Amino acid sequence: MTLLCSIRSLRVTYHGQANPALDFAALDIQAGGRLAIIGESGSGKTTLARAIASLLPENSKHTGEILWPARSTPLPGRDLGFVFQDPSASLNPVLTVGEQVAEGARRHLRLSWHDALRHARDLLERVQLPDPEKALKAYPHQFSGGQRQRIAIAAALAAQPSILVADEITSALDMVVQAQLVALLNELVRDAGMTLIFVTHDIALASGLADRLAILKQGKLVETGAAAKVLAEPESSYTRTLIASHRSLSSPSLLRDTSA
Amino acid sequence: MLLSVENLTKRYLSGSRQTTALDDVSFTLGKGETLGLAGVSGSGKSTLARVLLRLVPADTGKVHFEGEDWLTLSGASLRRRRARMQMVFQDVLAAFNPRATVGSVLDDPLRIHSGKRARDRKQDVATLLDRVGLPTGFADRSIREISGGQRQRVAIARAIATRPSLIVLDEAVSALDVSIRETILELLVELQQERGISYLFISHDLAVLRAVSHRIAVMDAGRIVETGAASQIIDRPQSPAARALIAAVPRLVTDAR
């Protein structure tokens, strides 16, 4: 694998905040890899995803370097697709689904509206939205949360980016929908050979999808490495805590004196 | 039997479309028992909670709670009896007045239901905070300046303030970080063993339900499609809805792939 992005001495401080949201020495991202950024609330995981995507607010302060040795800095929307946590906030409620998905293709692939809408239709089919032809003319509120997130994924893929950033895209959805979306993401990334940056609070979810993990805690990078190695032989006590607090179907019940 | 629900039905009209949110739902809940209610979004779990809490009316069906015909209670008798059935929701910030202090949040139910004087209630607030593992000095804090996990402890303290026999928990731990989630689940189990409270514990996460439930009921499209001991539902699910929920729980893959 070749090096896609190399982050050095990154320190991000939001406007009006005394302490940095993110402050760590080094993280490398491999082209074509699947990196999971894992952390609890306040860990800086969303800040890191936004820093990589050049989507930090203008009034935030950042020092350090985000280098792209083999290419120019990716332009969000064209070279890098970003899927946000809440699709009802990231989709425009007064534009049709077709317009929103076609927009990226029209602007960055320079397609006509006619061709861009046909492209959008194909994308909606690829994200397995039912009746894509009809969906083009529908509005976001006519879809369920899971379907809206599929539309947001289609919009992120519209300009055929080589990098896809998914920031907690399933945390507002139920587990059955979550499993479907993760399977879809897995398939899309594999088929297109994209680099995936998957932000989550759920180490188990990450373990089924990523080949590398970066574990953040309170703005610090506490551990990074190959997923299998980090999970089997975690070096930091925090990673061990995260693994230990994962509750699976075979974890013992908390109820005493019961057969349940 | 603390609670028995018989043939509850609730339909919503949205435009010209009719949605059956609850379709002939029946179940029972014993004293000191936890019934886990599992299901995907839109399966009717939250509608069931809202009907039980008398926040929305049912179309048909009966509910017996502590020996009373719960859905026909009204006015002062309903207000008085509400102390016995409390709730904890997922989005705790939205569930509180944003300008409230922790102390006032806990004092409200005591003032309404206990009939005690202000000075005695202050002592009760301190006892409640202590019981849910928060420092008594928290009473003066704003509800907004404490963390999500601390806020959920306040919500639990508020729920137990009126000494309820039943607490309905609707996705009460879903928004919490895993390490905090575990301590909240432990607190809930402790309170149950200490006070004999029953829980109706709603979640789409079967791993969470397994941790705290004696029995689990699985909902799908407004119906309860399967009910049984927690271990039985997890180990030998019969319905497609239960199987889908089990398959969806993320597995921690620790071996090299």
Automatic annotation (TrEMBL), chain A:
Name of the protein described by the UniProt record: ABC transporter ATP-binding protein
InterPro entries (UniProt xref): AAA+_ATPase, ABC_Ni/Peptide_Import, ABC_transporter-like_ATP-bd, ABC_transporter-like_CS, P-loop_NTPase
Keyword set, alphabetical order: ATP-binding, Cell inner membrane, Cell membrane, Membrane, Nucleotide-binding, Translocase, Transport
UniProt entry tagged with the keyword Transport: yes
PANTHER family recorded: ATPASE AAA-TYPE CORE DOMAIN-CONTAINING PROTEIN, OLIGOPEPTIDE TRANSPORT ATP-BINDING PROTEIN APPD
GO molecular function term, any single one: ATP binding
GO CC entries: plasma membrane
Sequence ranges assigned to domain ABC transporter in this UniProt record: 7-243
Annotated source species: Neorhizobium lilium
Subcellular location: Cell inner membrane
Cited CDD domains: ABC_NikE_OppD_transporters
Main location: membrane
Family classification: Belongs to the ABC transporter superfamily.
Family matches, as Gene3D superfamilies: P-loop containing nucleotide triphosphate hydrolases (3.40.50.300)
Protein topology in the membrane: Peripheral membrane protein
Highest taxon of the lineage: Bacteria
TrEMBL record, chain B:
Keyword Transport: yes
The keyword S-adenosyl-L-methionine belongs to this UniProt entry's keyword annotation: no
Entry keywords, A to Z: ATP-binding, Nucleotide-binding, Transport
GO biological-process terms attached to the record: transmembrane transport
Gene3D superfamilies given in the database record: P-loop containing nucleotide triphosphate hydrolases (3.40.50.300)
Domain ABC transporter per the UniProt entry, residue ranges: 3-246
Superkingdom assignment: Bacteria
Cited PROSITE patterns: ABC_TRANSPORTER_1 (PS00211), ABC_TRANSPORTER_2 (PS50893)
GO function terms (MF aspect): ATP binding; ATP hydrolysis activity
Database matches in SMART domains: AAA
InterPro entries from the UniProt entry: AAA+_ATPase (IPR003593), ABC_transp_ATP-bind (IPR050319), ABC_transporter-like_ATP-bd (IPR003439), ABC_transporter-like_CS (IPR017871), P-loop_NTPase (IPR027417)
Stated family: Belongs to the ABC transporter superfamily.
UniProt protein name: ABC transporter ATP-binding protein
Species of the source: Neorhizobium lilium
